Amino acid sequence: MEKGVHRWVVDISKWDPSPNDFCSALSLLPQHQRSFVKRFVRMEDRKQALVSRLLQYALVHEVLGIPFDEITINRTLEGKPYLENDNAGLEFPNFNFNVSHHGDYVAIASEPLCLVGLDIVSYDIPPKETVLEFIQNFSSYFSSLEWDNIVNTGSCDGILAEFYRYWCLKEAYVKAIGSGLAYGLDKVEFHHTKWTNISVEIYGEDRREWRFWLFELGKGHWASIARGHPRSATESYRKTLKGSEFNLEEYHKGLNLPNVDFVSRTVEELISVLHGEAYNIPGDERNA
Amino acid sequence: MAATTGASPLISMHSRPSHFFQHGLATLRVSGLKPVSLSYYGRSSLSFRMRPLPVRLQVSCAAKPETVEKVCNIVKKQLALPDDSTVTGESKFAALGADSLDTVEIVMGLEEEFGISVEEESAQSIATVQDAADLIEKLIEKK
Predict the structure, then answer these.
(1) Cβ-count burial A120-137 (b if 16+ within 10 Å, e if not)
(2) φ, ψ dihedrals at A222, nearest 5°
(3) Element (H or E) spanning A217, and its range?
(4) Is B83 a catalytic residue?
(5) CA-based nearest residue in chain A for residue B124
(6) What is the pTM of this model?
(7) What's the DSSP call for residue B46?
(8) ipTM above 0.95, yes or no
(9) Contact, A84 vs A73, CB < 8 A?
(10) Could you say which of B99, B102, B131, B134 is catalytic?
(11) B27 with A128: Cβ contact below 8 A
(12) Do B41 and A167 count as a contact with CB atoms less than 8 A apart?
């Protein structure tokens, strides 16, 4: 099952495609995905959207071995992407993935059994507000414990960083369950020891079937991973899953799988993968 | 960033990450169905609803151009789009690249600018700038 756990990240600041390069990368994707990418107004958003899709198709192709032109990826009503293929990933009880992008990074995470949610934030200093004014906009999303932790951090920098870290975790949770919006995020309270051993209490209940991790990606970016029980998925996302009922033993196998580090990939590599070329990444066990 | 006119810290607002702006709403409008939108916390007190929703929030009462323009300006400011960028009533929030933090700030900016409070349910059906403007005028009327 470990083979289903993946974390890939792309630094898109390193990809500066000419219009031709961009089009040719875009043409690797099925038509409905191309239209989706093209509707973004800003080039940066188009780049992120394109790389996000390249990651999805490349991951499914590499990990599940499905021929590229047989891969169908759709989105739920709330916008969460999922793999449509019925017979895919038979070796995994419930293969699912999630993508995120922010700033310089686009990333994907997959799990063989548990739900996975991924979110990236970057430490952006609010341009026209003080830190306190900025975070006040979002106060209703935090429990009083979390809010106290945030505002009692020693410095403005510290406060902003704490805010982003909590926000990142909350987003990972929302994205794991495939919710289009989250009602009552102030009741989803995160506990941690210096941002390790991260756990969650929902409506005051300790929810041990969830695990969370926070990574520093570099350049002031963080990524969070949420791992949870498939039955926590919203209805529209649960319908896309292969399985949502697992006995305790099975579930714990999935829950306690090692959480791997993020592996850096380049856009050029992803394009090679989708062209069906083997690409050897030094130090990557898959190619050993 | 959003308007900073001494926002009251007590503005109540429902949790709203970007997703419904970025993905759900465009497809929502096509299907006409309200998505199961509330997080599954395993509690029976939260209800799941699936019922047909009119494709447009209001068929007959489109917002005044001034309102649309105000919304465009708030959005442009929040997303740091250049003044000459094309943001119109037709513009979809998702396509303009609003992320979860942007979305919250845009809605708060609209609430402040127009002195209204946007309910979660109504916010769900906003896909374009025009939709936001229409909703704003409806809420102003109600006041």
Answers:
(1) bbeeeebeebebebbbbb
(2) -120, 150
(3) strand A211-218
(4) no
(5) A181
(6) 0.81
(7) S
(8) no
(9) yes
(10) B99
(11) no
(12) no
